[in-house]
């Protein structure tokens, strides 16, 4: 492996701390958003975390608490003071894709996913609202410390950050990193 991209800055920080990531090569690649989705045909009206507490919302797909999506969602729910009300409704999912599928199939009333995941299921799910997070959700990229092909790693990272590379990310729903033009 030559390059590492993470949906969680803490994972990248850990890699730097453990010496497996070259810190001088670390850059912000893209950003994303956590959203609450509902089945495309859902009659429920939701526009905030508080709306998930309404009686009509019985089951909420919630990712593995160790995964980035669930970490961001948990922080937002706790900051809103709603953890105690919402946690009993959670259907724990191994992955964000499982959360997406549960919502798309109508097995749950709502679910937390990244906006980029929601974009993969047009016509099956709709975004109810964006979850408010304190900090932007940034995906860093960096070269691995013992990269077998360091020149290729540098070139690949440069491509990912180029207008062409960023256009591909944009096509799949990612946003530019904070501070990018």
Automatic annotation (TrEMBL):
Gene name of this polypeptide: modA
UniProt keyword list: Metal-binding, Molybdenum, Signal
Species of the source: Acidithiobacillus sulfuriphilus
Annotated coiled-coil segments of the chain: none
Protein name in the entry: Molybdate ABC transporter substrate-binding protein
Similarity comment: Belongs to the bacterial solute-binding protein ModA family.
Annotated GO MF terms: metal ion binding; molybdate ion binding; tungstate binding
Assembly, per entry: The complex is composed of two ATP-binding proteins (ModC), two transmembrane proteins (ModB) and a solute-binding protein (ModA).
Protein's GO biological process: molybdate ion transport
Keyword Cytoplasm: no
């Amino acid at each position: 492996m030559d390059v590492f991209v993470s949906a969680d800055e803490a994972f990248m920080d850990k890699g730097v701390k453990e010496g497996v990531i070259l810190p001088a090569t670390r850059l912000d690649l893209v950003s994303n958003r956590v959203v609450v989705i509902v089945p495309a045909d859902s009659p429920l009206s939701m526009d905030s975390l508080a709306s998930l507490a309404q009686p009509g919302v019985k089951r909420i797909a919630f990712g593995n608490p160790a995964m980035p999506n669930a970490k961001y969602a948990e922080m937002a729910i706790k900051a809103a003071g709603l953890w105690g009300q919402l946690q009993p409704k959670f259907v724990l999912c191994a992955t964000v894709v499982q959360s997406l599928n549960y919502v798309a199939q109508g097995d749950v009333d709502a679910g937390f996913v990244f906006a980029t995941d929601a974009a993969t299921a047009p016509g099956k799910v709709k975004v109810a609202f964006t979850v408010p997070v304190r900090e932007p959700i940034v995906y860093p990229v960096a070269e691995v410390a013992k990269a077998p092909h360091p020149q290729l790693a540098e070139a690949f990272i440069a491509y990912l950050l180029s207008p062409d590379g960023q256009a591909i990310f944009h096509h799949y729903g990612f946003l530019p990193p904070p501070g990018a033009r």
